[in-house]
Amino acid sequence: MNRQSPFSYQCNACGRCCRDKVITLSPYDVFMIARAAGVPSAEVVRRFTSRRGSILRFNADGACAALQGTRCGVHRGRPLACRLYPLGLERDFASGVERFVQLDPAPNSAGVYGVGGKVADFLKSQGVPEYLAMNDRYRPLIAIFRNRVNQLVDFEKVEPREFWRRATREALAESAYDANPIIDALFEPGDSVVGHIESLTKLAGENNAGESLAAAAVLLAVSLGYSPSVASEQPQ
Ligand code: SF4
Known about the structure:
alpha+beta; binds iron/sulfur cluster; 8 strands; two-stranded antiparallel ribbon
């Protein structure tokens, strides 16, 4: 599906879609959840996320940590994936080509699918374009991190593919990962997106640990909806 494809969806707030999902979060998602919840981003990471802030947390009973009864407790700042739902979005990093897919309804969902509008109308009604635009602001950091890795690591001596494989494993580890101040900073956006991006750029320039920067580049790429390989391979 593309933005002109027929599509409409009426959410009836049954809460059944807010269970048993894997939802990747971007730094901007954490920023907006913090605003909606009225708490610092560090508390958002503790209360609502796992994998160092990069995944929405679901409780043992399957419910999202932000679900209150059948309502989203952070509705005004709900993440991009929740705004897109029941659509999924795949975007090619290099070409920008995007493709939407319709996801299966949750069991017994009260949501109503239709074809009375277009995908573009639905996206606008959910505030998706703003989220995509804000995510795009973080995109150049992937190249900034990678360029710094290339300054720090001698790939004449270190096998690049194995290096980036290790970085991907480290970035996507659920537990037992190494301390990584850049990843911590990625998911602590503070009060301003512009200020956050500036501070991450500065941090990358000052950091001398190629492995940490590489893992942060991978996790940033994934959090923005791209393949991990974008961190090491794609020109910008
Ligand atoms: S953040 Fe809100 S909309 Fe998204 S899964 Fe959790 S409760 Fe549902």
